[in-house]
Amino acid sequence: MSTQPATAPLLIACALGIEHLALRTGERGGAGGPVTLLRTGMGPKAAQRSVTRRLADPALAGAAVLATGFCAGLAPGMHPGDLVVAEETRDPDGTVPCMETDLLVKELVRAVPGRTVHTGPLTGSDHVVRGHERSALLATGAIAVDMESAATLLSAVRAGERPVAAVRVVVDAPQHELVRIGTVRGGISAFRVLRSVLPAFYEWHRSLLLPRR
User: Could you identify which of 33, 64, 90, 120 might form a hypothetical disulfide with 163, taking C-beta atoms 3.0 to 4.6 angstroms apart as the criterion?
Assistant: First the structure.
């Protein structure tokens, strides 16, 4: 049986200023250990650099890492404000399995009642995905796409063994493509959902501190 220290830290990574604002001003309940909120900048290269640099800090040795923010839904029937819990993240550099996804789903349903939570693979891209590209990515089995989650989690596990997860809020979907996040109803809806997810992240983090066989 192994345990994590009672003060095991949590690193929550997002890319955009609007995502950081939503998380920073959102409901806070208290995690099982110290929490660091990191804005990585947009794109996989920025995420890789920022996460690798931050995890080099000895204070974050063994930190759990959770990637979050907005994403594009790929599956028909998805709507802005839906949640995506990644079972794994994928990009050309590798696939990373996520941990305790069932618990995340349960806690998100509690934190944001009435919102649909989707589970499945989350794929990475180095650009904003539009139109026919969605169908091509959906055919690979992915249910959503964003630019940073895969790079964030791959960088995290390369820096050392640790629990990782990714939770994204759908900001646009095949029938609801957006141009600017902050100026349309779907973007506002996604922002409000992202403000509400921290309690679920903290419960996930606390669960990691329990003894495991």
Answer: 64
Count of C-beta atoms within a 10 Å radius of residue 75: 17
E strands, 15-163, in order: 35-39, 64-73, 83-91, 94-97, 117-124, 144-146
Q: Give the helix, strand, coil percentages of the chain, each rounded to 5.
A: 35, 25, 40
Distance separating alpha carbons of residues 60 and 177, to the nearest angstrom? 37
Give the contacts of 77 (CB within 8 A, at least 6 positions apart).
none
DSSP state of 182: G
Amino acid letter for position 113: P
- Give the Cα separation of 213 and 197 in Å (integer): 29
For the entire predicted model, the pTM comes to 0.89
The vertex-98 CA angle with 56 and 3, nearest 5°, equals 65
Rg for the chain, CA atoms, rounded: 16
